[in-house]
Design brief:
Chains A, B: It is an enzyme of class 1 (oxidoreductase). Two copies of one chain form a homodimer. Chain A has 14 helices and 25 strands. By secondary structure, chain A is an alpha/beta fold. Chain A has two domains: 277 residues, Aldehyde Dehydrogenase, Chain A, domain 1 (3-Layer(aba) Sandwich); 180 residues, 3-Layer(aba) Sandwich (Aldehyde Dehydrogenase, Chain A, domain 2).
Chain lengths: 536, 536
């Protein structure tokens, strides 16, 4: 007889409406919410109830108590903990994929891929913990004979900021939710995490939360390392950011949501950093050489990227810029044809669908905007893809045209010449990505735009599209405000750990009291008197 | 006949009331201010007049125009520019020291030392620019054969944030003013700088500003790389932080001043980081073993540190914590005796003197505070050193006792036992430094406090005092709020450059378009596929 998957003797594929406060599993008592299947409109069991202020307080208290012991663990223990979370998520099995499909309308292949990414990034951060490079170790040995004054022995390492609040994202129910990127990097840094689940995928959150809780238990960690709270309004989420024991916030969502959290964080007696990823239209610039050589291929790639995940990616190509030409007309016609046959696609939530429809309607009815093509009609919460065009002049005259329409809608901006195209770029707010489509013949023109793009975006791609964010060492998924609240960091890739760290210097501290990684026997890469020394 | 020092054909030791907007030297027209010699109360020539809003706008426009060309310079050009500033400051000669003495009341030896530090940190940042480690280069090469999807080529470097506003500090007229730490690290990062001069040392600011302007000119840089503005009120300083072309702020001063700038920065359409260093009382913890072994020596070191620079250091030892004992009584008596014979010392400004007197009076008249000793009476703007004591119970009951008194005043807090001492530490706000005085016999007790201290401070010292901040790779001069606005960075040492940088990722960019440091031929240390590779 097949057994239910277990971890530490407890079943982990159970969905019964529970949240997790340290080692406790409990149903909330504040308000009531249910997930909705956006494909069918069906309300899903079970009922979820929100946390009370007392439960929030308890989660924060436990996180604070766990902070010092958790950050002091052997690196290997922390690395294995991350790997155990990954394994537990896999062990949930198909129950996780099925629940996520029901709650998000996303297809199986996408969610299986997303699970792979989620597990992969947990394992990558385990490696980051083992490598110790994130500690940014620096040692300036004493110079007792230096004149006129001796130099003390100075040693620096980075330590975690403290408990972190993570807000699950609607569009990545696994990779940017309960055990997603923010949680993985915060836990890797040594920060306990309190997650506020996204209301769009409550069951998925419960399943993953149970997997993390089980990993805390079987790893023998202090229970407060992880809690997961539901919120049927905004009270718990806002209270979480305001709690004095929370020292940083990770958020992916709307600009309104992100800026509201920033305000709360800044109004605290002790302000804290908010890493909010908020909105981006991701300009794609088509150069003449590339359009002439392979306009049709680029059009195909563009529409594929635009339709992916019903366009519900932060890096979806929402803006195409090019100089007027016959080749641009051919590109637009080709892209329009491809889009026309595309199906409508179920969107994540009724609210997201409604916002998409409103955004598309604003474009459609704009006097300076031409509708190039719409996809096939849909039903329920399905979004109908849309491709629109306007002139640079019109785009520059109306800032509303530069606002994100979250979903499979994109706007082609026809520019008279290079100077006008540069003006459009210069008018944009901060973005996550920009893409250049070029051939060698376009290099000179492209080179001129790169400084502008560097100032505007976190990632510049050549001959590709921003969707599909590689989890790697050199990835930047971030960008100047308002694409994120803080362009000095990334939410994807190993550099994401930096956002949860701060430096501490130890001066003339005896070897016996130094943290092991700062002793002369340190096994890690470090800066010794300003020169890199490789670790063991 | 001896010649006046020149740089690029212009005299640089001239004081005539000018500020600098790019390549222009001009007198302001808004309001009127003069420096005051705090030792004599004498008003110093010449008259300084503040910048207008139009002049502020011009400085910011030039800084913005200079940003792309300046950040794109060969590293060697930027490094030599920093070295030229250093040399020009030395070339001003004694005129700089004499003016700084007159404006601050600080003694010659101190100011000559501070000039050495200022020049030294400019030269150190030149080396940082040459080393290229600050770029945090990362390369994840393409994997075209990877299944199920190929990996793109990803390359990351850090780029400067944009023009930086620097506010000169009253207590370091050279090392934290016009060409001080914030300016040096911002210029090293590739950020143009607009300085708002501190009103306490206008002539010193003018001299150093002229030296920087000359370096811009003889280095052939875009003029907007540096401007220096005077402000006779708060309008120009506040307008500078609000200007959309300014992308970060460096400030050293009061908590009120720092938090006001934070509010302005956060209210902008595009919020920007503020690195404000604000206040710190720098707890010093005396352990029983150390008190028994060398209480007298520690008392001597403590009083020396407390009196240094009339106590006008952010790292001055304002709080002594120890467990009640006869040895503590001896320490207090010894420290009191040493303090009693100390002279009053001229403070930087009438305002600082007034605040010091008020702070000392609040301690003196506090019912739970005992005056241990005062120094010799002074006159004018001289501050009389003061040593006070109270109990842990009283300290915990009145948060006012934990407020910084900027100057040579310190409060000894007598604790009943280790637990009470730990409670006092736990009650403190974020601090720049904490010092432990220990012997080997104290290691066990000290070890227990280190996690608490790590959460509270930026630098933990053993058997020393926080005054005298080494400019080095492993230094942290920073700490949790409110010691600084942002504990994730340092204002002293080479890590200070990080605060003015953000990461950008280049995906599949052809070699010809990549920045030189990210090409395969890069001469710098870098992370290749997650492993450190040493540069040439």
């Amino acid at each position: 007889m097949p057994q239910a998957p277990t971890s530490g003797g407890k079943e982990i594929d159970v969905i019964n409406g529970e949240m997790f406060i340290g080692s406790r599993s409990l149903s909330g008592t504040s308000g009531e919410a249910r997930a909705v299947n956006p494909a069918t409109g069906e309300t899903l069991d079970p009922v979820y109830r929100g946390a009370t202020r007392a439960e929030l307080d308890e989660a924060c208290r436990l996180a604070w108590e766990a902070f010092d012991p958790y950050r002091s663990l052997e690196p290997e223990t922390r690395a294995r903990f991350l790997e155990t979370i990954a394994q537990n998520i896999l062990d949930i099995g198909d129950a996780l994929i099925e629940r996520a499909m029901a709650e998000t309308g996303l297809p199986r292949a996408r969610l299986e891929g997303e699970r792979g990414r989620t597990v992969g990034q947990l394992r990558l951060f385990a490696q980051v913990v083992r490598d110790g490079r994130y500690l940014d170790l620096r040692i300036d040995p004493a110079m007792p004979e230096r004149q006129p004054l001796p130099r003390p022995d100075l040693r620096l390492r980075k330590i975690p900021l403290g408990p972190v609040a993570v807000f699950g994202a609607s569009n990545f129910p696994l990779a940017f939710s309960v055990a997603g990127g923010d949680t993985a990097s915060a836990l890797a840094a040594g920060c306990p995490v309190v997650v506020k689940a996204h209301s769009a995928h409550l069951g998925t959150s419960e399943l993953v939360g149970r997997a993390v809780q089980a990993a805390v238990r079987t790893s023998g960690l202090p229970e407060g390392v992880f809690s997961l709270l539901f919120d049927t309004g905004r009270d718990i989420g806002q209270g979480l950011v305001a709690d004095p024991r929370i020292k940083a916030v990770g958020f992916t969502g709307s600009r309104g949501g992100g800026t509201a959290l920033m305000k709360i964080a800044q109004a605290r007696p002790e302000p804290i950093p908010v890493y909010a990823e908020m909105s981006s239209i991701n300009p794609v610039i088509l150069f003449p050489g590339a359009l002439a050589e392979r306009g049709e291929k680029i059009a195909h790639g563009f529409i594929t990227s635009l339709l992916m995940g019903a366009g519900q990616f932060c890096t979806s190509p929402g803006l195409i810029l090019a100089i007027e030409s016959d080749k641009l007309d051919e590109f637009i016609a080709g892209a329009g044809n491809a889009l026309q046959s595309a199906s409508a696609a179920t969107m994540l939530t009724p609210g997201i669908h409604q916002a998409y429809e409103a955004g598309v309607e604003a474009l459609r009815s704009h006097t300076a905007v031409q509708t190039i093509a719409r996809g096939q009609a849909g039903q329920g919460y399905q979004g109908v893809p849309g491709l629109f065009s306007t002139t640079a002049e019109a785009f520059l005259a109306d800032r509303k045209l530069a606002e994100e329409v979250f979903g499979s809608a994109s706007l082609v901006v026809r520019c008279r010449d290079e100077a006008e195209l540069a003006s459009v770029l210069d008018s944009l707010e901060g973005q996550l990505t920009a893409a250049l489509h070029i051939t060698e013949a376009d290099h000179e023109d492209a080179r001129k735009l790169i400084p502008v793009l560097e100032r505007k975006v976190g990632r510049i791609l050549v001959n590709g599209f921003g969707t599909g964010v590689e989890v790697a060492h050199a990835m930047v998924h971030g960008g100047p405000y308002p694409s994120t609240a803080d362009g000095r960091s990334t939410s994807v890739g190993t550099m994401a750990i930096d956002r949860f760290l701060r430096p501490v210097c130890y001066q003339d501290m005896p070897e016996a009291l130094l943290p092991p990684e700062l002793r002369d026997s340190s096994p890690y890469d470090r800066l010794l008197d300003g020169k890199t020394v490789l670790g063991a």
